Amino acid sequence: MPRNTEPERDKRSRMYSKAYEFFDKAIQLDGRNAYAAQGIAIALCDDKKSYSEAVQIFTKVKDAIRDPSVFTNLGHVMTELHQYQRGIDNYEIALKKDGRGDNPQLLACLSRAWLLK
């Protein structure tokens, strides 16, 4: 969703707030719901720019589920924090866990991290 105007930014923020409410409710119902926790971390990154808080959540989720998406999201956050080598490491783990090693989106993210490094 575009963020060019103030109304668009407000609408986007309201959507993230609503998503956060539902993720929080899912965690209240199932305290071990790693997917809901990952959703909260994504919302924190995209809407609030709370990267360090999101890293803490992703790190806990990483221990609960071994899904490539967790490592991909950690790669995104680390790259945003200018910790490029950590971003690269997480993207490479995601590629390995993805099974194919040729995921074009992951390869593009990995390429961007290398370029920024």
- The assigned structural class equals mainly alpha
Residue share in helix = over 70%
Mean pLDDT: 92
Alpha plus pi helix count: 6
Number of strands: 0
Main beta-sheet strand count, sense and barrel state = none
Sequence stretches where pLDDT stays below 50 over 5 or more residues: none
Strand coverage percent: under 5%
Task: Give the CA-CA distance, first to last residue.
Answer: 28 Å
Shape: globular
Radius of gyration: 15 Å
- Give me the strand/helix succession: HHHHHH
Oligomer: single chain
Summed up:
By secondary structure, this protein is mainly alpha-helical.
Structure description:
The protein has 117 residues and is an all-alpha fold. It is 80% helix and 0% strand. α1 packs antiparallel against α2 (34-48). The mean pLDDT is 92.
Topology:
Layout: H1 6-29, H2 34-48, H3 51-64, H4 68-80, H5 84-98, H6 104-116
Helix pairs in contact: 1-2, 2-3, 3-4, 4-5, 4-6, 5-6
Which descriptors apply to this entry?
117 residues; mainly alpha; 6 helices
